[in-house]
Amino acid sequence: MRLLGFVSLVGSIVGATSTALSANSSESDPLQGLYALVQRRIPSHAHSFTFSFTNSSDSELDTFTLTDAVNKTRAIHVECNTVSACSRGLYTYLTEYGGVDIWWTGSRLDQLPAPLPAVKTAVTRSAIVPYRYMFNTVTFDYTSAFWTFDDWELMLDWLSLRGVNLPLAWVGFEHTLVEVFREYNITDADISGFLSGPAFQAWNRFGNIQGSWGGDLPTQWIDDQFVLGKQIVQRMVDLGMTPVLPAFTGFVPPAMHNLYPNASIVNGSAWNDFAPQFTNDSFLEPFDPLFAQVQQSFISKQQAAFGNVSHIYTLDQYNENDPYSGDPSYLTNISAATFSSLRAADPDATWLMQGWLFFSSADFWTPERVEAYLAGVPGDDDGSGMLILDLYSEAQPQWQRLSSYFGKRWIWCELHDYGGNMGFEGNFANVTEAPLAALASPNVSMVGVGLTPEGMEGNEIIYDVLLDQAWSSSPINKTEYAQAWATRRYPADELPECAIEAWQTLAATVYSNTDPGSQATVKSILELEPALSGLVNVTGHHPTHVFYDTNTTIVPALQQLVQAGHSTPSLLAIPEYRYDLVDLTRQLLVNRFIDLYADLLAVYNTTSASSASVSAAGQPMLELVADLDKVLMTNENFQLSRWTDAARSWANGNASYAAYLEYNARNQITLWGPKGEINDYASKQWGGLVGDYYGKRWAMFIQYLEGSKSNGTVYNATAIAGALLDIGEQWSQSTSAVGARDTMVVGDTWLVVQEMAGKWA
Ligand SMILES: *[C@@H]1O[C@H](CO)[C@@H](O)[C@H](O)[C@H]1NC(C)=O
Ligand SMILES: *[C@@H]1O[C@H](CO)[C@@H](O)[C@H](O)[C@H]1NC(C)=O
Ligand SMILES: *[C@@H]1O[C@H](CO)[C@@H](O)[C@H](O)[C@H]1NC(C)=O
Ligand SMILES: *[C@@H]1O[C@H](CO)[C@@H](O)[C@H](O)[C@H]1NC(C)=O
Ligand SMILES: *[C@@H]1O[C@H](CO)[C@@H](O)[C@H](O)[C@H]1NC(C)=O
Ligand SMILES: *[C@@H]1O[C@H](CO)[C@@H](O)[C@H](O)[C@H]1NC(C)=O
Ligand SMILES: *[C@@H]1O[C@H](CO)[C@@H](O)[C@H](O)[C@H]1NC(C)=O
Ligand SMILES: *[C@@H]1O[C@H](CO)[C@@H](O)[C@H](O)[C@H]1NC(C)=O
Ligand SMILES: *[C@@H]1O[C@H](CO)[C@@H](O)[C@H](O)[C@H]1NC(C)=O
Ligand SMILES: *[C@@H]1O[C@H](CO)[C@@H](O)[C@H](O)[C@H]1NC(C)=O
Ligand SMILES: *[C@@H]1O[C@H](CO)[C@@H](O)[C@H](O)[C@H]1NC(C)=O
Ligand SMILES: *[C@@H]1O[C@H](CO)[C@@H](O)[C@H](O)[C@H]1NC(C)=O
Question: Please, what's the b/e burial string for 462-490 (b: 16 or more CB within 10 A of its CB; e: otherwise)?
Fold first, then answer.
């Protein structure tokens, strides 16, 4: 085992970054993309910012210096050693001096005051790590599956300003892959049979699933995503980021067996409860000579389409998909051949992999096997061959167990959200102190921090703080952070103290979660299939156990925020304020639902219970579901129709294509598979979904319990499951004509939130 020193690790990174940056520098100023960002987001101050590169770079890490410009007509100057550092310098000014920010819910940077506040004393800061990474392969489905370039533009500006320099860039992958498969004489029918639907591509890319339920992936989708992907990658480069691009992983259509009978093609393992038709993907083993040829074809085609903009490739062969053999020499052969195929196609290639498997399949991935797998990538070339995402570092870090990945470089990542579920949760200490402690540990090969959420739904503060920590060598103070964060989230002449107290309350409680059993976003039982047992107090993956007391956390925070709106009505015009009101009310209601459910069970389980008493106990639950739907419907960010409309919009008016896209969108957030294979994994608290779907399920369940009391039928879980699946299939297949599309924003957030807070607090 050989551990690499920190300095030698950095050398290769600077090389990699500057290669990407110089892609176009001969014909254009690399800072042009940043000027364009200023123009786009702060047009009234478009000429107030200048950027320049320093001549001397004594720091190998990204560094910026913020000063007042000498020339008064151009007020603020940022000097830096990379575009990303300049962008972070700009962000530092905008947030810390200008009091404005850009959020997932929109950019408010245009509210920068005039005249601009002065910097006075120059501020110099450096990143603590070379890489700031963003995205999980599955974020591309749980969150951005149907995004347009406008959505991407907001996210990329959000990333760039926060100093992210290494974002994942999957969009458009299938176009290149199809061209490669065609070159290898696989028929279009066989290719179609392999690719998965628009809302499920990540798991096809991972080799977990194949094929598309509800109809084959249309060529139109592949072509449109290709156009979008090129725009995204270009923008990433313009903003000084190095896109992490896909490569050929080895997963191929089954027809490859027949065309190349001598090639070593093995069947991957079955994934979850999917029928063989949709899983057991064929895997071309990398040591077969065909693999390197396909890799060469893929990378050259991708480079022709996207430009020579990056040498970092995402490549996952065993995500929730165990290797054909656990023999260490087999594993070394696989990775050695995979890596040499990359280097043959691109001599500067770096292989980036998600480390999720080392946690999720920890029984298979013993330290011995991990060491063998990583050993296939040579370690004698300064370690630049590999980058591993320690995917869930805030709760289940693997780097200690695996001896800092045996010297391979790795990135400390915050996962936090499974399936784009919604629920307040986080721990400041775990994303501020913990990454610093990791970085300071002896012989560690950590080279970055990153965000790898499966989906992005709320809890924005807990993501923000990690990207801020990447620029601070001492741990960020939770109390001070919450205050500053709330102050710029609700820009007001005089923000009432109670608004800040609301966030202090949350920071000290739901964002200081130390319960090891309830990590990552806590799921609400309201979104799960109704049942008599198994819903409440689940710990581990997808916990439902609420680790805090709602009465002393969510309730006072909501009341404080409402009080702020009463004393400063201008807050009501701030979209983030309205978002937070809905978010807190949402949490209050779903937590109260647990108590109502317990009441129902208590009644049902007494032998003397009548149909009427069960009905009376079920009534408040249905009322709460309706109330939750009502509050969610007041805000565009909490609506099913936003998701389904985004899906449909890619059809440009073609009705059958729109219905196909909507089925994908609806199926992902409900049944997740044709028959509920990973039912409710990606559930959401969205207006339209809550009322029309979860409401229907609970109503059916309660009615069933009532019936069983009136006619003495014994509770039959199988019968219930069948009836619930019917509801799911019907709901997935319905289209917005009968669903939520015609119900855009309904009702006023301010009024409905107060009504619900009064009723349920
Ligand atoms: C390089 O810049 C030109 C315009 O300055 C642009 O048209 C082209 O797309 C850029 N290419 C890459 C690979 O960035
Ligand atoms: C950059 O180099 C030029 C010429 O060598 C020098 O005049 C200037 O002062 C330098 N700027 C900085 C910030 O070091
Ligand atoms: C200040 O900047 C403006 C705009 O770039 C330029 O026209 C002007 O000449 C500058 N003045 C001085 C004193 O440098
Ligand atoms: C595909 O088929 C054509 C025609 O039979 C053949 O010339 C070519 O070599 C095949 N391509 C590959 C990669 O096998
Ligand atoms: C497969 O291997 C056998 C035995 O080595 C050989 O005879 C045959 O020609 C090969 N077939 C193909 C398609 O390469
Ligand atoms: C998270 O923080 C808690 C204390 O706040 C600590 O007990 C726990 O070990 C931390 N977990 C990780 C993975 O850092
Ligand atoms: C964080 O800041 C608050 C307010 O400034 C202070 O009272 C507290 O002691 C600080 N906490 C730590 C751990 O430094
Ligand atoms: C009610 O009865 C069911 C089935 O017998 C059991 O699983 C469940 O734990 C009971 N719940 C309560 C709250 O007693
Ligand atoms: C869930 O846990 C809480 C305490 O954490 C407890 O009060 C409650 O009874 C539990 N509910 C069930 C159904 O086990
Ligand atoms: C929380 O408040 C509700 C409503 O006032 C009350 O019914 C419940 O008992 C309280 N729960 C706890 C744990 O104090
Ligand atoms: C008896 O109740 C069960 C459970 O609600 C229901 O499925 C069944 O249809 C009822 N049977 C009759 C004859 O009403
Ligand atoms: C439960 O329901 C299933 C499906 O409807 C049925 O096949 C089974 O016979 C039922 N079990 C009992 C004990 O009634």
Answer: bbbbbbbbbbeeebbebeebbbbbbbbbb
**Which residue lies with its CA nearest to atom 4 of ligand 6?**
514
Q: How confident is the model at residue 744 (pLDDT cuts 50, 70, 90)?
A: confident
CA of 128 to the centre of ligand 7 (A): 22
What is the DSSP secondary structure assignment for residue 366, as one 8-state letter?
Answer: -
The residues, ordered by sequence, that sit 6+ positions from 92 with a Cβ below 8 Å of its Cβ are 64, 66, 123, 125, 471
Ligand 1 pocket (Cβ < 6 Å) reads 23-24, 27-28, 237, 307, 309
Whose CA is closest to atom 8 on ligand 2?
55
- Residue 37: band (very low, low, confident or very high) from pLDDT cuts 50, 70, 90: very high
593 C-alpha vs ligand 8 centroid, how far in Å? 17
Can you say how many angstroms the Cα of residue 7 is from the centroid of all Cα atoms in its chain? Answer: 31
518 CA → ligand 9 middle, Å: 13
Q: Which atom of ligand 8 is nearest to the CA of 602?
A: 13
Q: Judge if the beta carbon of residue 479 lies within 6 A of ligand 7.
A: yes
Q: How far apart, in Å, are the Cα atoms of 412 and each of 60, 388, 420, 633? A: 19, 9, 21, 37
What does the mean pLDDT of the chain come to? 94
pLDDT digits (tens, 9 = 90+) for 482-517: 999 999 999 999 999 999 999 999 999 999 999 999
Q: Is 73 close to ligand 2, i.e. is its CB under 6 Å away? A: no
Q: Tell me, which fold does domain 131-476 have in CATH?
A: TIM Barrel (3.20.20)
Burial of residue 409 (number of CB atoms within 10 Å: 0-12, 13-18, 19+): buried
- Pocket lining: 602 vs ligand 8, CB cutoff 6 Å: yes
Name residues contacting ligand 5 (CB within 6 A).
Answer: 261-262
Ligand 7 atom closest to the CA of 478, numbered from 1 = 1
Whether the Cβ atoms of residue 209 and residue 278 lie closer than 8 Å to each other: yes
What is the SS3 assignment for 162? coil
Give the closest residue to 526 by CA, choosing from 685, 312, 352: 685
Which residues make Cβ contacts (< 8 Å) with residue 504, sequence separation at least 6?
479, 482, 483
Distance 595 CA to ligand 9 centre (A): 10
DSSP assignment of 280-295: S-EEE-TTSHHHHHHH
31-126 architecture in CATH? 2-Layer Sandwich (3.30)
Query: Is the C-beta atom of 52 inside 6 A of ligand 4?
Result: no
Which residues approach ligand 12 with their CB closer than 6 A? 716, 718-719, 722
Protein residue with least CA distance to atom 1, ligand 6: 430
Q: Which CATH class is domain 498-760?
A: mainly alpha
H-helix or E-strand spanning residue 709? helix 695-711
Residue with CA at minimum distance from ligand 2 atom 9: 55
For the CA of 601, the closest atom of ligand 8 is 13
Count Cβ atoms below 10 Å from residue 695 Cβ, excluding itself.
19
Beta-ladder partners of 245: 313
Q: How far is the CA of 716 from the centre of ligand 11 (A)?
A: 11
Q: Which of 65-79, 106-120, 531-545, 600-614 has the lowest mean pLDDT?
A: 65-79
Q: Where are the alpha helices (DSSP H) in 378-427?
A: 403-406
Q: Is the CB of 67 under 6 A from ligand 2?
A: no
* For residue 32, pLDDT beyond 70: yes
- Assess contact for 661 and 647: CB atoms under 8 A: yes
Domain ranges in the chain are 31-126, 131-476, 498-760
Q: Is the pLDDT of residue 524 over 80?
A: yes
What pTM was estimated for this model as a whole? Answer: 0.94
Amino acid symbol at 463: Y
Specify the DSSP class assigned to residue 724.
H
